[in-house]
Design goal:
The structure holds two protein chains of two kinds.
Chain A: E1 4-8, H1 10-29, E2 37-41, H2 45-60, E3 65-69, E4 100-108, H3 112-124, E5 129-137, E6 149-153, E7 160-165, H4 167-170, E8 174-179
Parallel strand pairs in A: 2-3, 2-4, 4-5, 5-6
Antiparallel strand pairs in A: 1-8, 7-8
Chain B: H1 18-34, E1 49-54, H2 60-71, E2 75-80, H3 92-101, E3 106-111, H4 116-123, E4 127-133, H5 139-153, E5 160-164, H6 171-182, E6 186-190, E7 206-208, H7 211-215, E8 220-223, H8 228-232, H9 239-246, E9 261-263, H10 276-279, H11 286-305
Parallel strand pairs in B: 1-2, 1-3, 3-4, 5-6, 5-8, 6-7, 8-9
Classes of the chains: A alpha/beta, B alpha/beta.
Chain lengths: 187, 310
Amino acid sequence: MPAKRRLCNSRKMDEAIKGVADAIIAEFSRKSEMDFAFIGIQQRGVPFALRLIEKITRKTGFKPQFAMLDTSMYRDDIGMRATLPVIRETDIPFDMNDQAVILTDDVLSSGRTIRAALDAITCYGRPSLIRLAVVVDRGSREFPIRADYAGMNIIPEDGKKILVEFKETDGSDGIYEIDWSNPTKGE
Amino acid sequence: MEVNWTRKDLLSLYDLTPEEIVLILDTAEEFKKVSERNLKKVPALRGKTVVNFFVEPSTRTRVSFELAEQRLSADIINMTASSSSLQKGETLLDTVRNIEALQADLIVMRHSCAGAQNFIAKNISSGVINAGDGAHGHPTQALLDLFTIRQKKGRIAGLNVSIVGDILHSRVARSDIWGLIKLGANVTLAGPSTLVPRDFEQIGARVCHNLKDAMVGADVINLLRIQHERQRAGFFPSTSEYARFFGLNKENAKYLKPDAMIMHPGPINRDVELDSELADGPQSVILEQVTNGLAVRMAVLFLVAGCLKK
């Protein structure tokens, strides 16, 4: 197991998520109507999206729709990775056409997952706009992609990786820096 | 426990762990959704070349693989024995090495000799998917059967599955038996004693020579096509006699549970092994098997392609 150092406890992580929810509310409340849906990228973009929905619903009364998306079939590195990712569920229960959507993921790094997600989304329809929300922006971009909402910016030491854990997927909340021994790039 | 797929070939279900079989079925669930969308294509195998090399003729399996490859955005070459240099006396290994020299990533292969794909897979670095080898195995057919059973019944473990017909010569039956037993089903084999030898009891299946015994209590009944050339070889006296003793029809269907599923790998001999009305009736899942075959083959191609060293 790689060495794991905690950077944030669950309270700080919750504050960061709350900051993202507030920023989304601020942007969309300036529009004529508050209407947007979340697409959580498997795996940890899913609990992140559900937390945002819960906070936004509590604060505004508007409950955004929710979808989950697995990007494995759209990646550009199939056969280049040490292990093949397990394909998780994609479930998009609403019409994507003309819908404002907010894509969520835990960590934004190379931007390759988001590139794959944008490709996937266009196979389902033509959203009116797409925003990107992440818990942590860790830099090291390889694609011209940026986050519209980031809970925090953390630049890890060389060779280390940021891990965001959620109670739903990992048993508890927390943000960690870990030594990444896997030789392949991207996440 | 999450399992990772690490095989560059899919040769036989006999080689796979139950967890690997479940991983293929789970992966296929997501690929099935791709075919239900307006845009039925994903870029997963973009830039990969797949050669469909069918040394033995095939229509449905080849078409299913070809469509699966197209939906994954692969580049495809189709070869048959008659269009290859096998006709000119080239050895199978030389033919396949030539395909590999053209940088083919995957070879989907059918051959009339059991084990041909194992031999090829050992000798080349391209991935090999077995699309049927002699009477040995037809792993993607068994996987689509397992997928269909799991989808309809919600599980495989503990189900009573009967396979009826020419088990002796059937690669579908062998693959089905391995897959079903690995996933915990109770397998019964039925047919004339010339076509259902007792040897199959050694791998954990129940053998009977009476259709009623295979029907009572079955959750799934899978009828295999009876090949007319077997009659000429003396395995049973006549097709009509086979139909009388081992054909599923409206009269004997009363022995089936009302929710028993009727399966058939196709092509059907209507009114021989299966009554026409039952083949088209509500208990039949035959066309769903075809639809699911596409999803299962997409999953297998995706998993195997992900393990090629490049």
